[in-house]
Amino acid sequence: MTISRGPQAFPRSEYLRRLAAVKFEMARREIDTLIVSDQDNITYMTGYTARSGYVPQALLVRAAEEEPTFILRRCDAPAAIYQCFMDRTKIVAYPEALIADHKRDGYDAVVDHIVEAGLANHRIGVELYSLPAKSMEKFKSRLPRATLVDFTNAVAWIRIVKSDLEIAVMREAAAIADAAIMRGAEVIRPGVSEADASAEIMAAQIRGVNGKPGTDVYGTIMLCASPRTGTCHIPWTEDVFRVGSQVNLEVGGTRHGYCAGLMRTYSIGAPSDRLRGVHEIQVEGLEAALGAVRPGATCSDVANAFYRTIEKQGLTKESRCGYAHGIGWVEPTASLRDGDMTELKPNMTFHLMLGNWIDEDFGYTISETFRVSDTGVDVLTTMPRKIFEI
Amino acid sequence: MTISRGPQAFPRSEYLRRLAAVKFEMARREIDTLIVSDQDNITYMTGYTARSGYVPQALLVRAAEEEPTFILRRCDAPAAIYQCFMDRTKIVAYPEALIADHKRDGYDAVVDHIVEAGLANHRIGVELYSLPAKSMEKFKSRLPRATLVDFTNAVAWIRIVKSDLEIAVMREAAAIADAAIMRGAEVIRPGVSEADASAEIMAAQIRGVNGKPGTDVYGTIMLCASPRTGTCHIPWTEDVFRVGSQVNLEVGGTRHGYCAGLMRTYSIGAPSDRLRGVHEIQVEGLEAALGAVRPGATCSDVANAFYRTIEKQGLTKESRCGYAHGIGWVEPTASLRDGDMTELKPNMTFHLMLGNWIDEDFGYTISETFRVSDTGVDVLTTMPRKIFEI
Fold first, then answer.
1. Protein fold of B164-389
2. For residue A258, which of A203, A199, A330 has the smallest C-alpha distance?
3. With pLDDT > 90 as the criterion, what percentage of chain A qualifies?
4. Which of A81, A136, A237 sits opposite B360 (nearest CB)?
5. Which one of A6, A10, A389, B162 has the largest count of C-beta atoms within 10 Å of its C-beta?
């Protein structure tokens, strides 16, 4: 009749370490209760990765309690018991009657819990990017004596430096991304449809490598082929590859919520002079950026190493050069962009994303997922930095 | 240097019809400007399905303008020009410098556009479930003379009745869901890993059928096998199927943003008496629910036809029996639940979702995607209503 805790990606001590860091930040901001509505932060503090976040659910972190309390929909409670590191008494299921009730929802259950725990007049942290405006109105009206304190992105800033255990999982994700790029080289062929190739590449992301399957496909794939190489976020189309087609591919491995992104460019037949020229400049820029990575350097330093290198050869890139990378793909903290003075520390991880959408109808993609090492850079993805010629 | 509009899933007249309905609702609420931040509503009114909504983007619908204006990130503008029905002058790109700037973001570009258009003192509709609390604060502070009117879910209520053109696309999506369930019957085998089977099922969702590939995989897949049949939203695990395993599978076809969901249950070896018993009751309930579908009946009628049928045989189901279904999976409007008095109209579409997670360690899944026809029901998915025995 009951479900047991399943295999865990991390030991209990790892979750307690993460929670200690979050509680330290809570203490610094003088709050003793935090409502975590960001799904990636919930994954970080519990191990939960099931896809139930399309209805309200929240993690309550309290200074006075070792384990957080996860409040979620009744039918999702078994998945939480199975996946989370906490004791099952910390999984609080709210009734299904709150789903699709246009007056009350799961956030009412969260408020009820806070009131019953005697916290209604406390300083309570809330995350204002993951919380809908409508739900914030509810918190304000139903918790009039509480002081709601903006805790937006604070947990994400803690997540930015990974533990060795997290790095090991991201390395597994990176190996999957490698395999998906290799699969692309096998299946992108003239006459093949973009969808059929995407099916094979997506399957490679799920099968994984070395007995470590992808555990989800958060990043889906982005396969932007001629005449769409100037676009970046169309998964694929109903078109068929042709001789002369260029294919920009972004893939990602996923392990236990952690992602590793990777981009490469393919050419069916010899690349055009323009494509080859851009490729050479971009790879030089990529290597300059990686060469600038070391503890103490800033995100801005890394980005400008890239920008300066390509600008010398007449190429520019308008978008940022990447972002903090881990749970749920883009972490909303540091970016590899001019002016981001975030100082690099060992075990920070980034997707060095050098996709360059130069014209409406021409772009080029290359990227790596890396971690900052003790002395420089450790690139987790390992594919050759070439145009994959088909 | 420029990209042209790509193949369109719907004719221009279809988008103008949808926009006319939205503008009518705007007029009823006395607003002449609407900020659409819900990604599914953007798809509905433009055809845009690229996956760029992780950064701010918004559609501006104005009573005085035939076509809406889509404000999005510079690097995503080519995809919008390619996918949207509007003239390219209606695609407004904001600079990449607004990405990951911790002070200003894409919503500042939206506000700037509103101010420059002379609308800053108008009544402006906003969608409060898709808008982060943080962004609503920005709208309030930067548009102090505007009256911000809650337009939450109003567009979704318009979307609930589909056109024949939309039904045709959903039928294509349903055929893909059918194919994915059939693929499940081929690949679920003792000794096969859940991930390897999921890779094949996902690939089937992308390859599609009849020359109509899946255009995305919004719903991913949910493959919950013994001992996790009491969970509903874990995509798959690292486990291997065994003789005696039960597998609950939820798949979805996706065409141009429109989904069709489908669930079936598999058994490796003969099903247990309990599973067979639950299956028979649930199928009887499913048929009773479908039998209750007709214009003029309510969502509550359909749900209660199911609940009453299974309760007669000692089975209950706590969760709702389904939801309005179309763009982006769950539509946030009508639910097949007790007390939902939404009156069924021809061409409303639902996922009749009868997943029943009875115990923590035992559940059963079956579902169909249907439309309300002129006289009764038209079930879009077509798989046999059986336990798939392997």
1. Creatine Amidinohydrolase (3.90.230)
2. A330
3. 98
4. A81
5. B162
